[in-house]
C-alpha cells in the first residue's frame, strides 16, 4: 500500500519548478543538513557517516534539522544521504574517512580488473540494496507533515565513475582521465550501467515520497566541452528521458527534475535542451546572462551564490543577493534561490540565516 502523507502547506518550490509565476522565489541550499549545524553533531553522535545514512530515524532527523532551525525561511528539505550509495549497491566498498572524505579501499583500476566485468554483469537490485533510503524518505515525509516538499537525489554517472576509479576525491583526476582517453568504450559501458541504476533509484525515491529529484554532476567541470558531450551529457539525458517513463510505469506522478553540473558553465545551452525542468547553476555563471539563456528555452534556474560569501560581511552577502535578485527576474518566475554548491564547513548558521532573510527582504513586492 502506498504511504499516506499530510496535505502540503507550502508547495512554492513545486510550482516554481513547473515554471509557474510565483509570489517570491523558493529557497533551500545544498548540504543544508550537515556538519555546520551544532545539532547535526548531537544527533550523529558516535555513528559514522554511512551509518547515519543507513538509519532511517537518524537520516530523517538530520534532514529536518534545517527545516526546524530556519522555519519560515526554507522551502524544501533534501533527504540526508550520499551520492555514493549507488556504487555501494553495485558491490563496491566505500568508507567515509574523517577529515579526508569518501574512500574506496579497492577502486576500479582498469578494464582488466576483475571488478569491471563483475560490475557490468551484476544484477543490481536498488530496491533491495537501498531500501534504507526509501524508508528514510517515507519517514521524513511523515515527519514533515506537509511543511515543505522533500527532494530526492542521486549522483550523475560521470561523477560516480570518477569516484569509483579514483578511489575518492581528486585534484588531478589521473585515473578517470586514463579511463576515458584510453578505454572510452569500456567507460561508456559502465556509465550506461550506472545511468540505468540511477533511473530506477530515483523512481523508487518518488514511490517512497520524494516530490522532486536532483542529479548531482559534481565533477562535470573536469571535462572539456567536447568530452562533456561524450562522457557526461548522454547519461544525464538518459536519466531525464527515462525517469518520467519509469514513473508512469509505476503509476506515479511525474515529478520535476533538476540537473546540477558543477563547473560545466560551457554546457548551459546543452543542458537547457534536455528534459530537465530546472538547471542548477554554480557561481561561475553571471545571473542575468544565465537566466536569459535558460528562460528562452523555458527552463527554471537554481542557484547560484558562491558558498564562500557566507564567510564574509553582511554587506558582502547583501551585494551578492542583490545581483541574484536583479539577474533572476526578482524571483517571480523561473528562479529557485540556492547557493552555487553545497554549504561549506565552518559557516556560521546565523550567517546562512541572514542570507535567507536578505533574499526574502529583497524579493518582497
From TrEMBL:
The organism's place on the tree of life at top rank: Eukaryota
Assigned keywords, A-Z: Cytoplasm, Decarboxylase, Heme biosynthesis, Lyase, Porphyrin biosynthesis
Localisation: Cytoplasm
Annotated source species: Cryomyces minteri
A single cellular component GO annotation: cytosol
Name of the protein: Uroporphyrinogen decarboxylase
Top class in the EC scheme: lyase
Signal peptide, first to last residue: none
Gene Ontology molecular function terms on file: uroporphyrinogen decarboxylase activity
